[in-house]
Specification:
Layout: E1 2-12, E2 17-26, E3 29-34, E4 43-46, E5 51-54, E6 56-61, H1 74-83, E7 86-91, H2 102-115, E8 119-122, H3 138-144, H4 159-172, E9 176-178, H5 195-200, H6 207-224, E10 228-230, H7 236-247, E11 252-256, H8 266-271, H9 284-296, E12 301-302, H10 311-314, H11 331-340, H12 347-354, H13 356-362, E13 377-387, E14 406-416, E15 419-423, H14 424-427
Parallel strand pairs: 1-4, 1-5, 6-7, 7-8, 9-10, 10-11, 11-12
Antiparallel strand pairs: 1-2, 2-3, 5-13, 13-14, 14-15
Helix pairs in contact: 2-3, 4-6, 6-7, 7-9
The protein binds (4S)-2,6-dioxohexahydropyrimidine-4-carboxylic acid and zinc ion (ZN).
(4S)-2,6-dioxohexahydropyrimidine-4-carboxylic acid is lined by residues 62, 94, 152-153, 179, 277-278, 305, 307, 322-324.
Length: 435
């Protein structure tokens, strides 16, 4: 099967390519990229007006299987990924059971292969049950295919245990992904500690709770010579700690999440539990610092922290509802609206942070359109205006604080290995289109 994609603007940050070009796909792989390529195609796709970019890579998703399949399954999560332009994802281990043994990890990978429409990778937990008490068999998890080790959702609090984890990760050359939270400072808080939390009467989560653990884990990484990836950085001082660590040569990378570069804690006042997320939405100065961090490279990648929860769970009072929001289907719109159309990131930078950079951090064979690579492709309409309608999401859950927001930029078609896994024109769930 030979497919020719014509008339689009191809952006491939891996090779620094941005030009109007054709793309040939043969047997599920990129065969050639260039102008006016000749040959007999079985199928021609017209990409006029569209960006043709590597399938997006999200190194931080919660697909909830095993254990919480009322929120999401690997199948529905992968459909949401495809609808957002993502073709490779890394699952977080806070499932039930946690992804803390080779058996559970293999279950996730196998289910991804059998039921997923995108490429499903998985992390492995650092401690059994994500309880922070006993180290998992990191070597066995690595052997089973874990691309990173993390207790995401929590931070292990025992330095002795953590140092051992960092040392083993260094030997295995697998990054530790760190959800940064000093639990003793968080207590019952549901949102950022500040003016908004006072107004709502919530005890609040101080920025310091995140920053302490960022600083701590930078020291662990430095001491052990390990690779550290800081997840969902939300505070200005957190960004600065990472910037300084990079300057002195620590092997640290970091991600910013779309909600942290678009929303402040005021959103919790107006949207309640839908805006409850961990780390929490912070202040306008923090949002600006996250954007500045993305712009100067301190924050390497954009990752969604796609965290589906059922409507009944989010209907609980603020203090009781779970943390998290879905993000796969709004990431492109938010990135283009808040970062690209505002001139804060170039197109090339934004696409790099959604493709080759996260792929390299996790060592995934993804994120490039170089000849020979898998033909995983996202077609993005950078100027498409649309209104976020969570009822139209492919995700099993609708918990988005972005409902009703007008965005500019959308993934309109997604291919994995040269096959279309999402096509907006044929998608037909309806309701999501603006004027
Ligand atoms: O908001 C969050 N939700 N943050 C996390 O770290 C975990 C996630 C979840 O699993 O729901
Ligand atoms: Zn987290």
């Amino acid at each position: 099967m030979k497919t020719l994609i014509q008339n689009g603007t191809v952006i491939n940050p891996d090779t620094n390519l941005q030009e109007k070009a054709d793309l040939w796909i043969e047997d599920g792989k990129v065969a050639a990229v260039g102008r006016s390529l000749q040959g007999e195609a079985d199928r021609i796709i017209d990409a006029s007006g569209l960006l043709v970019v590597p399938g997006l890579v999200d190194i931080h998703v919660h697909f909830r299987d095993p254990g919480f399949t009322h929120k999401e399954t690997i199948e529905t999560g992968s459909l949401a990924a495809a609808a957002g332009g993502f073709t490779s994802v890394v699952c977080m281990p806070n499932t039930k059971p946690a992804i803390d043994t080779p058996e559970t990890l293999e279950y996730v990978l196998r289910t991804g292969r059998e039921r997923g429409v995108v490429r499903v990778y998985s992390s492995g937990a650092i401690t059994y049950g994500i309880r922070g008490e006993e180290l998992t068999d990191l070597r066995a998890l690595a052997q089973a295919g874990a691309v990173t080790f993390t207790d995401d959702g929590r931070s292990p609090m025992n330095p002795k245990l953590l140092l051992e984890a960092f040392r083993t990760a260094a030997e295995l050359d697998i990054p530790i992904s760190s959800h940064c939270e000093e639990h003793s400072l968080v207590t019952e808080g549901a949102m950022n500690r500040g003016r908004a939390s006072e107004a709502v009467g919530d005890p609040g989560i101080p920025a310091l709770a995140e920053e302490l653990v960022i600083a701590r884990d930078i020291l662990f990484a430095e001491d052990a010579g390990a690779r550290l990836h800081i997840q969902h950085v939300s505070t200005a001082r957190g960004v600065q700690l990472i910037r300084e660590a990079k300057q002195r040569g620590v092997k640290v990378t970091a991600e910013g999440a779309p909600h942290h570069f678009t929303l402040t804690d005021e959103r919790v006042v107006t949207h309640g539990t839908l805006a409850k997320v961990n780390p929490p939405l912070r202040t306008a100065a923090d949002v600006e610092a996250v954007i500045a961090g993305l712009a100067d490279g301190t924050l390497d990648a954009i990752a969604t922290d796609h965290a589906p929860h059922a409507a009944e769970e989010k209907a609980l009072p603020l203090g009781k509802a779970p943390f998290g929001m879905v993000g796969l289907e709004t990431a492109v719109g938010l990135t283009f609206t808040a970062l690209v159309h505002t001139g804060r990131l170039s197109l090339m930078e934004a696409i790099a942070k959604l493709t080759v950079v996260p792929a390299r951090i996790m060592g995934l064979p993804a994120g490039t359109l170089a000849p020979g690579a898998a033909a995983d492709i996202a077609f993005i309409d950078p100027d498409k205006e649309w209104i976020v309608d969570p009822a139209a999401f492919r995700s099993k859950s609708n918990n988005s604080p972005f409902a009703g927001m007008k965005l500019k930029g959308k993934a309109v078609r997604t291919m994995v290995a040269g096959e279309t896994v999402y096509d907006e024109s044929g998608a037909g769930k309806g309701g999501a289109e603006g004027q």
